[in-house]
Specification:
homodimer, alpha+beta, Nucleoside Triphosphate Pyrophosphohydrolase, 4 helices, 10 strands, elongated, DNA-binding
DNA sequence: GCAAAAGTGTTCAGATTACACCCATGG
DNA sequence: CCATGGGTGTAATCTGAACACTTTTGC
């Protein structure tokens, strides 16, 4: 391809958005529009040209799709499209965003647990939520991006500050534990989990409880402030 | 800068080469030639244009400097030049290479411990070895690349297969331990270190010893083959 | 024999795991 | 009263850290 006037892209920003609905991790996928990859899906992506930061470009890609935008994006390790020739070589910069699909909980609320489903954006959607454990065939190198993300969340997320991004501002031990069980892909022992998480000092109790059915009310927690005074 | 004919670079490959001389970690630095950053130093780097992979570009950058080329290059997390405007926005792809500056050891050898110094490449060198603990002011975002590398080696390198790249093909427990102490920046207890490293099954003994002065001869080891049959 | 690095096992503390019972609520 | 998830402490096990002495060599 000889297109000397159009500058080569400085790179492509790829965004992986993960949402937690209380029992599953879901990711935002968009149908691939390119001729060579019809029928495949992909993560939202956009050129970095015209943006000062790849993170900006990543948010713009979500904006254009009408997809949800998580409050924070974490830069991932870079990946390259393998096997591409020098002419159309593309550097892709990955980003990871976490968000919750659980309803925000207010004081004295009697919110029902969130029902799954209805996560798409219409009939012929430009994006949809897809459980990370059952993603369809992905275009380009996005499968390996997903693989990277899978390892990242398993190894970096648990017991970290960022795992709280999967939950509402106020949450219960049960929700926190289910988030961890989903991320880790295994069951956890209730007392051990709480003991271990308490050591992190990442959460603090509120003087509120959450009543979600015919059960004993659950203490609500919130993320602890950044640095204790 | 308006240069519509010359395509924007698809990215820049930055290479951090770390060498271990038996007591220090050294890195390859080149003097910055750009007008705005004279007097500063930088890591070797080169445009990715014309290469199919960033790793190729990284090796080419070393080649052009006449700098040593480590046998393997590990892609690092990508970084961006912060604060750059969209027009000259550059995506840089980092690479990390490890190599040994210790002499290769043959059977029945009586090699003296390697003396430090004389690591540069001439009078007005195009590159030089510099202890990672005393790097001068670096150009562009290379300081943060170095910071990333520092964390990487402290957290990823110890007790891994890759740490053997800092040593010759045959090495002693003492050398392996000193490599770890240098990387970790702290002293290690001899027996605990050996016990822990043996669990990795990364090394195997050879029927040779190494005599390095008025000391008891040391058993030589070599990296274990990839997968045991 | 003396200096210097090599080599080797055991003990202790802290962390992780496993495990069983009572509580509060809605229906 | 019963089903359901919330809530709590203790004993056993495993892992990582600390620690002292003997061996071999060159000088």
């Amino acid at each position: 391809m000889e297109t000397p006037v159009a500058p080569t892209s400085a790179g492509v920003a790829v965004v992986v958005v993960l949402g937690f609905d209380g029992s599953d991790l879901l990711t935002v996928l968009a149908p691939s529009r390119e001729a060579t990859t019809t029928g495949l899906w992909r993560f939202p992506e956009g050129s970095i040209d015209g943006h000062t930061h790849a993170t900006e470009a990543a948010y713009a890609a979500l904006e254009q799709l009408g997809a949800p935008k998580p409050p924070h994006l974490e830069p991932l390790s870079s990946t390259e499209s393998p096997g591409s020739n020098p002419a159309d070589h593309v550097v892709s910069l990955g980003h990871l965003g976490l968000m919750t699909l659980l309803p925000q909980i207010g004081p004295r609320s009697y919110v029902q647990p969130n029902a799954a489903g209805a996560y798409t954006s219409g009939q012929n959607p430009r994006w949809r939520w897809q459980p990370v454990d059952s993603v369809p065939l992905l275009a380009k190198n996005h499968a390996r991006v997903l693989e990277y993300v899978r390892t990242w969340i398993r190894t970096q997320l648990p017991y970290s500050k960022r795992c709280l991004e999967l939950l509402p501002n106020r949450f219960t031990w049960g929700q926190l534990q289910r988030a961890h069980e989903t991320v880790l892909g295994c069951e956890l022992e209730k007392r051990n989990f709480r003991k271990r998480f308490q050591h992190t000092d990442l959460i603090r109790p509120r003087n509120e409880v959450y009543i979600a059915g015919a059960h004993r009310p659950a203490q609500l927690f919130e993320p602890a402030p950044a640095s204790p005074s």
